[in-house]
């Protein structure tokens, strides 16, 4: 095994744990699945559960599409500072049907997504660097016609400490915690043995993966997901503003299985428990003041299933040949 070889499994683990079968809705999540050419379709749902203080219940279901398109070929130059590089355009889109029972009238659908350009670089020291920038959005079916984009950015890097352990560090501009934040990212990938691996990428998630066979993997994850939506006010809230803001933050504890049906197709299913730990309607875009509702819910059952179609080659495919 040549020095630095563990960065390959590290990046694959990031793909699986941060992007494989984890997110509940399309948004600008820290989602490294975007950095391999593929298309993923999925659907998820969680049960209606009562709010802790407000009268009523909250539940939702959604369908999502992720598409990642390589911009040109993989560039491999082993005599340069960066041995290889690859660039992508990626798109995410989701449509959710929430059930918020304390709101009168017809329920609003929620739409979210991201459009960004991304790059991946492999250094001579066999460390990986990822950079992505673009725009995201989160609207309901009334405000989508006047869509307002939001800045999205992600930067991550790896540093091999030992053959079996790699440091992950970087930062992100994200709405994953229910409002716009710039957050540092720090984590570690621990290759325990050929069957087991553990990835922590704080503050987003911690995941363990068991490779049962060459075609079957089992993933266990603890993490957070959320977003902040523009929501049309049709008299439900005591303000003259036509638009208010819905902030959602959830904790998830899930288990998933992924089966590789063929070289280019894999199927996955996920189940577990999700709890809405912050559900806020606010007049303020930062959702920290002028709140109409500020609550949480009881834990709810969660299900997700989907298919992933991989095509073309990535930087890692070229690297593994060397």
What can you tell me about this protein's structure?
This protein has helices at 7-19, 315-320; strands at residues 38-50, 57-70, 75-76, 82-96, 99-100, 110-123, 128-140, 150-162, 165-174, 181-191, 196-202, 205-211, 216-232, 243-260, 265-282, 291-295, 300-310. With 322 residues, the protein is mostly beta strands. It has one domain: Porin, CATH 2.40.160. The protein is globular and about 65 Å long. The protein starts with 6 loop residues before the first helix and ends with a helix. 40% of the residues are buried. Residues 1-34 and 318-322 have low confidence and may be disordered.
How is this fold's topology laid out?
Elements (H helix, E strand, L loop, with lengths): L6 H13 L18 E13 L6 E14 L4 E2 L5 E15 L2 E2 L9 E14 L4 E13 L9 E13 L2 E10 L6 E11 L4 E7 L2 E7 L4 E17 L10 E18 L4 E18 L8 E5 L4 E11 L4 H6 L2
Antiparallel strand pairs: 1-2, 1-17, 2-4, 2-5, 3-4, 4-6, 6-7, 7-8, 8-9, 9-10, 10-11, 11-12, 12-13, 13-14, 14-15, 15-16, 15-17
Label this structure with key terms.
mainly beta; 14-stranded antiparallel barrel; Porin; 322 residues; disordered C terminus; disordered N terminus
Instruction: Tell the overall outline.
Output: globular
Q: What is the gyration radius calculated from CA atoms?
A: 20 Å
CATH architecture: Beta Barrel
What is the residue-mean pLDDT, rounded to a whole number? 84
The helicity comes to under 10%
CATH superfamily: monomeric porin ompg
Strand order of the largest sheet: 1-2-4-6-7-8-9-10-11-12-13-14-15-17
Measured between the Cα atoms of the first and last residue, the distance is: 11 Å
* Series of H and E elements: HEEEEEEEEEEEEEEEEEH
Largest beta-sheet details: 14 strands, antiparallel, barrel
**How much strand?**
over 45%
According to CATH, the fold-level topology is Porin
**Helix and strand composition category:** mainly beta
Structural domains: how many: 1
Helical segment count: 2
CATH class equals Mainly Beta
């Amino acid at each position: 095994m040549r020095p630095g070889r563990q960065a390959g499994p590290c990046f694959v683990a990031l793909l699986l744990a941060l992007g494989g079968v984890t997110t509940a809705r399309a948004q600008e999540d820290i989602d490294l699945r975007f950095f391999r050419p593929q298309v993923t379709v999925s659907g998820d749902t969680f049960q209606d559960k009562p709010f802790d203080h407000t009268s009523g219940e909250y539940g939702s279901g959604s369908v999502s599409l992720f598409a990642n398109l390589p911009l040109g070929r993989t560039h491999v130059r082993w005599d340069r500072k960066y041995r290889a590089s690859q660039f992508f355009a990626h798109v995410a889109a989701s449509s959710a049907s929430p059930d918020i029972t304390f709101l009168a009238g017809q329920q609003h659908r929620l739409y979210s997504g991201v459009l960004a350009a991304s790059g991946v670089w492999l250094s001579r020291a066999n460390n990986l660097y990822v950079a992505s920038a673009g725009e995201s959005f989160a609207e309901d079916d009334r405000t989508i016609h006047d869509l307002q984009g939001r800045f999205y950015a992600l930067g991550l890097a790896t540093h091999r400490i030992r053959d079996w352990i790699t440091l992950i560090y970087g930062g992100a501009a994200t709405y994953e915690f229910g409002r716009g934040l710039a957050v540092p990212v720090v984590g570690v990938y621990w290759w325990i043995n050929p069957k087991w691996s553990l990835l922590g990428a704080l503050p987003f998630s911690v995941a363990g993966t068991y490779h049962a066979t060459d075609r079957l993997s089992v993933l266990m994850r603890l993490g957070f997901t959320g977003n902040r939506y523009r929501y049309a006010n049709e008299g439900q809230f005591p303000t003259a503003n036509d638009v208010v803001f819905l902030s959602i933050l959830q904790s998830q504890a899930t288990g998933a299985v992924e089966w590789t049906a063929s070289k280019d197709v894999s199927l996955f299913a996920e189940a577990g428990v999700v709890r809405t730990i912050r559900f806020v309607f606010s007049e303020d875009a930062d959702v920290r003041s002028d709140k109409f509702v500020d609550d949480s819910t009881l834990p709810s059952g969660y299900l997700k299933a989907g298919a992933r179609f991989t095509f073309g080659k990535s930087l890692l495919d070229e690297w593994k040949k060397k």
